[in-house]
Design a protein that fits this description.
This protein is α/β, with parallel strands linked by helices. The protein has a single domain, classed as Alpha/Beta hydrolase fold, catalytic domain (Rossmann fold, 3-Layer(aba) Sandwich). The protein has 5 helices and 10 strands; from the N terminus they run βββαβαβαββββαβα. It has an 8-stranded mixed sheet with strand order 1-2-4-3-5-6-9-10, sandwiched between helices. It has a two-stranded antiparallel sheet with strand order 7-8. β3, α1 and β4 form a beta-alpha-beta unit. α1 runs parallel beside α5. The longest helix has 27 residues.
Length: 242
Amino acid sequence: MKFPTTFSTGERSSAEVLPWKYYQPRTSSPSGGAVVIAYGSDGLAPKWEPEIRRHAEALADAGILAIIPEYLQKRQAIGDGQSDTVFGSIFERHDEWSQVLRDSIIAAHNLPGINSVGLLGFSLGGFLGLRIRDSVNVIVSYFAPHHFPTFGVPPELAPLKGLGSKTNSALKALIQHGEADSLVPFKTHAIPIADDLRQEKATVTWLPHPGANHGFQGTDTANSDARDKSCTETVKFFNSHL
């Protein structure tokens, strides 16, 4: 079955059509589930694209439709690899990007054969995904920030912090984070995210990765193991709960 390569986002007066990449289920009996994948601030830059694609392909191999919406192409589009520009725009545009992801979830629900949609977010994508957690009942978040700026500012003084007001007590969340993450430190981000979700009565599965850094980058054992284990556990989580 062929799916559309674009989706609509925004109100009528400001609606845009944006592209999304999709990976069709590769089984004879698709699950009827879809997962929207929200990349991080670098988009699908070469440094990050292989792991994001590996997750999409693993989901497809499990019978789940994987969709990657190009949310950074919304108005004043920001290209892949321009994380500095993205960081400078987060305070102004995080709600707008969140809405694009929300619209992509709505569009995924309307695809033929799809009866449930989850969300997989990496870094900034995890932060944005958690802020629209009322739109899905299953979410996997990788090394997501709890506040911005992520480093050098006490959490209580950060101008943008928390998961937003859209709570979801039915949510099942898998939180994955490297314990050696220096960009988005584990103790001041992963732990508060899990605590906030539990306070909302969401069901939280906790998966820290000892010795792994932000993005699980590197050829060392800690990061290699984190990449492999995290992908396997993500697919299992969606298979169990989607």
